[in-house]
């Protein structure tokens, strides 16, 4: 039976990418050696790293604009600390829209003052705050573009004169933005780009070198830039699969093309959530709904066993909501086909007819 993978992360990857990466594990570049047993300093893997970094900048439209792309380790969780270590001298401004931004704030507070410009925590993060003021004397402003747990997404970003830092772990490469508005973007690969194990960091070089503290080598963006993302042994397999996924995206027509498909998927599912009397969305304002992670509940818990059985029979995987929220969560990342969303909608309609 075909599986329809709505997992929130590690998430679905393109079938062609899975096939290529599986072959490379056995025989990389016809070398009769595995990708995961060759030296990361070898000519073949250095070419992979360079290509991956270049493709990331190309997709974001940031080539030759003073930005560097890095593939690091530690996930977005390490970036919560690393961003502050490199940029926070006295005070930073944070928008708190969910669990991950909450954790980013906790890390930044270890290094300086944090001003929380707005939060939706009191309402269990079911909306994106708006009309907040960013202090002009802050070293940077930090936000999270998409919140996987609660299913909210920032549609617009504020205008600010200070550097803007954004955690785009779960919606990077899914929609077209003016990425030059951001001085630092980071994203764990396992949501929309590759397997777990590497993290993309895109940074504008001119924001570095402005803090007075000594920065440990492994936490220094400048060190990683100078070493071309090879200061220590990189996550070879994760970087390679991320490169393949970025190549796949390019073949599909890039972010502009994939955004159209993502819009179709989101429209199809949210229309059913709104129409079907058995379901209700989690997000308070429709304009804040995430196109990557649709969160919803059954209005009648007595139907849960029946619905879950129908999902299983349809081959639908990974639809359970995060343990802190419950309900259901359909993660519709770039590699998820429209067909899978249609199958989910068909199940929702079947439950309605049988209720």
Topology:
Layout: E1 4-5, H1 15-26, H2 43-60, E2 67-72, H3 75-87, E3 91-96, H4 99-108, E4 113-119, E5 141-144, E6 146-147, E7 152-153, E8 164-167, E9 184-188, E10 199-204, H5 221-226, H6 236-251, H7 254-275, E11 279-281, E12 293-298, H8 304-313, E13 316-317, E14 328-331, H9 338-354
Helix pairs in contact: 1-6, 2-6, 3-4, 7-9, 8-9
Mean pLDDT: 97
Outline type: globular
Strand order of the largest sheet: 2-10-9-8-5-3-4
Number of strands: 14
The run of helices and strands is: EHHEHEHEEEEEEEHHHEEHEEH
What structural class is derived from the secondary structure elements?
alpha/beta
- Oligomer state of the chains in this structure: single chain
* Amino-to-carboxy terminus distance: 26 Å
Major pleated sheet: 7 strands, mixed
Rg on CA atoms, Å: 21 Å
The helix content is: 25-40%
Number of helices: 9
pLDDT below 50 for ≥5 consecutive residues: which ranges?
Answer: none
Strand content: 15-25%
Descriptive overview:
Residues 5-344 form the Aminotransferase class V domain. This protein is α/β, with parallel strands linked by helices and 355 residues long. It has helices at 15-26, 43-60, 75-87, 99-108, 221-226, 236-251, 254-275, 304-313, 338-354; strands at 4-5, 67-72, 91-96, 113-119, 141-144, 146-147, 152-153, 164-167, 184-188, 199-204, 279-281, 293-298, 316-317, 328-331. The strands form four sheets. The chain has a seven-stranded mixed beta sheet, sandwiched between helices. Helix 4 (99-108) links the parallel strand 3 (91-96) and strand 4. The longest helix has 22 residues, at 254-275. The mean pLDDT is 97.
